Amino acid sequence: MERMECASYLDFYRLWPVDIYDAMSKNDAMAELTRKQREIERRTAEILRVARPILLGEGFQALSMDRVAAQMEYAKGTIYNHFPNKEEIVLAMAVESMQLRRSLFERASRWQAQSRIRMMAIGVACEYFTQNCREDFLVEQWIRNHSIWDKSSEKRQNLIRQCELDCMGVVGGIVQDALRDRELLVPAAITPQEFVYGFWAINYGSQILSYSSPSLATLGIHSPIQAIRMHCMTLLNGFGWHPHMDWERCQAIMQELSDGFKEDFESICNKRGTA
After folding, report:
1. pLDDT in tens, 66-84
2. Residues 6 or more apart whose Cβ sits within 8 Å of residue 54
3. Are the CB atoms for 47 and 68 separated by under 8 Å?
4. Alpha-carbon span 158 to 171, nearest angstrom
5. Which residue from 83, 88, 103, 178 could staple onto 184, CB 3.0 to 4.6 Å apart?
6. pLDDT tens digit string along 31-63?
7. CATH 1.10.357 segments of the chain
């Protein structure tokens, strides 16, 4: 019988005469396909593992396809089979980091409490991410560089957009619950999404400043985390998000949440392999 060229094992079963194979041979081939997929995923993860310390330790200019290939003892073409350029590698690392952030947010959002307490739990997740997943937080910053973003594919950019949507969707869900239960009334001048954006800007922006500014202590900012907690508490009180809190109660709840989530957050990080 003349040999047929097949693009995949699935094509093999589509093209080959039915009467020459049995159920077992199909299962074997499908298992082989799965094995190949696992190998692709394993190699992709290995590329990201090798590239991460180069990016974080030496910067984007030090990262190259040649260097990654040399450290992995692969031909450079093998790396290009997974990523068309180093910009794509950076975005792939950022997707991993943002997926971890989302997992922490999702766990925090499931806390059985009033919506405002659940919002505070998201704040605890933010603090945990920046303090205990520092490399992931720093990887996220690289995608804000236009020279990296503009050279990446639309497909990878859409993955980043989806990650941001997922994270903000978790927070937005809490806001929607608060509106439904009349624990919060968002002014007509802004949408619930813009309300969420404000808290994103405060928390994310302050975290970037905490890492990048060398003059905070000189400016009299000795506890950035405490400062942000106070700003968020005051903002939530100002919007009338029930229950109203004073500083002592806010601090007590944040400490309770931090203690309560510590084990779960560590488990999430361990499963991802970054803790």
Report:
1. 999 999 999 999 999 999 9
2. 62, 63, 67, 68
3. yes
4. 20
5. 178
6. 556 888 888 889 999 999 999 999 999 999 999
7. 92-272
Contacts (Cβ under 8 Å, ≥6 apart) of 85: 65, 151, 152
In percent, the amount of the chain with pLDDT more than 90 equals 77
Q: What torsion, rounded to 10 degrees, do the Cα atoms 15, 17, 20, 24 define?
A: 50
Report, as an integer, the average pLDDT of 212-231: 91
| CATH class held by domain 92-272 | mainly alpha
Of the candidates 166, 165, 164, the residue with the CA atom closest to the CA atom of residue 143: 164
Go through the chain and tell me how many residues it has: 275
How far apart CA 275 and CA 267 sit, in angstroms, is: 8
- Please name the helix (run of DSSP H) or strand (run of DSSP E) that holds residue 157, with its range, or none: helix 154-180
Q: Which residues contact 237 (CB under 8 A, 6 or more apart)?
A: 244, 245
Residue 274: CB atoms within 10 Å? 15
3-state helix, strand, coil in the chain (%, to 5): 75, 0, 25
CATH fold for domain 21-83: Arc Repressor Mutant, subunit A (1.10.10)
As a whole number of angstroms, the distance between CA 252 and CA 229 comes to 12
User: If you search the block for the tokens 């031909």, which residue do you land on?
Assistant: 75
DSSP state of 214: T
Cα–Cα distance, 246 to 237 (Å, whole number): 9
Of 115, 257, 104, 98, which is closest to residue 162 (Cα–Cα)?
98
pLDDT at 15: 35
Integer Cα distance of 66 and 79 in angstroms = 9
